[in-house]
Amino acid sequence: MILFLVGNKQDQEERQVTFEEGQRFQESHPIVTAFSEVSAKSNYQLSEVFKQITTQLLEQADELNQSYVMPIEKYQLKST
Fold first, then answer.
1. Each residue of 42-61: pLDDT tens digit?
2. Fold exhibited by the domain 4-75
3. Phi-psi group of 48: left, alpha or beta (phi > 0 → left; psi -120 to 50 → alpha; rest → beta)
């Protein structure tokens, strides 16, 4: 399981939760895989968060020795 804590509205000066509070929360809750701040308005760190999630999913799949992608050969039509 991957649980990311993502703080939105990084671009705003007035915040409900500071970056440090987010980090402390992540550090004190081992189930939370990572913490990052993003801004949908300015597109800050959005791609990076999705890349981190994808990387962790692939690493987890390798660790479990499972493949989440079915080989395409199974679905190719054989010519007769």
1. 888 888 888 888 888 888 77
2. Rossmann fold (3.40.50)
3. alpha
Distance separating alpha carbons of residues 10 and 42, to the nearest angstrom: 9
Distant-in-sequence, close-in-space partners of 2: CB < 8 Å, separation ≥ 6: 33, 53, 56, 57, 60
Chain Cα centroid distance, residue 67: 18
Q: What is the pLDDT of residues 10-28, one digit of tens each?
A: 777 787 788 888 888 888 8
Nearest to 5 by CA among 24, 79, 59: 24
| DSSP track, 11-72 | T-SS-SS-HHHHHHHHHH-TT--EEEE-BTTTTBSHHHHHHHHHHHHHHHHHHTT--SS--G
Using alpha carbons, select from 9, 6, 8 the residue that is nearest to residue 35.
Answer: 6
Mean pLDDT of the chain: 75
